[in-house]
Specification:
Blueprint: E1 7-9, E2 20-21, H1 24-33, E3 41-45, E4 51-59, E5 64-73, E6 81-86, H2 90-103, E7 107-112, H3 123-137, E8 144-145, E9 149-150, H4 151-156, E10 163-167, E11 186-190, H5 198-206, E12 213-216, H6 225-237
Helix pairs in contact: 2-3, 2-6
Bound molecules: S-adenosyl-L-homocysteine.
S-adenosyl-L-homocysteine is lined by residues 167-169, 171, 190-191, 193-196, 217-219, 221-223, 225, 228.
Length: 243
């Protein structure tokens, strides 16, 4: 019964017959906005135990309890793709987080570059946007949203095995192509509206921890920073199996 398309991210373990509680916000949504009742079905996922069909077993305005009934999709290994994007103004950052979640980024890392105009994020808000996007797009996990880092700090902690693709608006590099192994650790780096400085591009390439990096083109036009994120992730991830 009920609208089976309601799909919620929870933090508790999911196991047949082991009851769990909804958060207060989810309880409000289910009881007051969606007007669900006891017995109605929902789908639940927690990023670890796959997706479950569950039943609402108790509902009030402030608290809802679920009982998981059966596994509907086993947990999959998502591609390991970080998005490192130069922080944008609020609305564009919100858009980037939503789209990167839909497209399958595993970690979303805002970075501060020389020409970045913004320096503040509300991580709770971005995590809520990512959670809602994952619920809506049927992902089985929510990407991790990290606090902003200066480019130098990111590079000084760079895991050398991770292959970096730098979206370079000078467009003289090769076109962006996904790596042959869809599960290999990769990262897309995109610059701010003002672009990368030459010193930044040279510095990334010369950094001792960045052993695998290429500057790539996203086509012949200069894209807005948020367009570059969406186009770049689509090229890197759209072909991956997600299995
Ligand atoms: N103001 C800059 C453009 C910056 S575009 C200029 O006029 O040159 C913002 C970011 O989007 C860039 O730093 C780059 O990471 C990415 N980008 C935009 N267009 C691109 C393209 N055609 N190829 C690769 N990256 C691109």
């Amino acid at each position: 019964m009920g609208d089976p398309s309601i799909r919620l991210f929870v933090t508790s373990p999911l196991q047949a017959g082991v009851e769990l509680a909804a958060s207060e916000a989810q309880s409000h949504y289910l009881a007051n906005v969606m007007r669900r009742s006891a017995g109605d079905s929902v789908k639940l996922f927690n990023g670890r135990d796959g997706e479950w069909a569950a039943r609402i077993i108790a509902i009030s305005r402030k608290s809802v309890r679920f009982e998981p009934l059966e596994l509907t999709r086993p947990q999959e290994t998502d591609p390991d793709c970080w998005l490192c994007f130069a922080l944008l103004k609020r609305q564009k950052t919100d858009l980037v987080v939503e789209k990167a979640t839909e497209l399958g980024a595993s970690v979303i890392q805002p970075i501060i570059t020389e020409r970045t105009q913004a320096d503040h994020v509300n991580l709770d808000r971005l995590r809520a946007i990512a959670t809602e996007a994952a619920e809506q797009c049927e992902r089985l996990m929510v990407p991790e949203i990290r606090a902003p880092l200066k480019l130098a700090a990111l590079l000084n902690a760079w895991p050398s095995e991770r292959q970096m693709f730098i979206a370079d608006e000078r467009r003289d590099g090769p076109g962006l192509r996904p790596p042959a192994d869809a599960l290999q650790p990769i990262a897309l780096m995109t610059g701010p509206e003002g672009g990368w400085t030459s010193a930044e591009l040279d510095g990334i390439g010369a950094h001792p921890l960045v052993s695998r990096c290429s500057r790539v083109s996203l086509g012949t036009r200069i894209l807005r920073a948020e367009t570059a994120v969406i186009a770049g992730l689509a090229l890197l991830l759209a072909g991956s199996s997600q299995e």
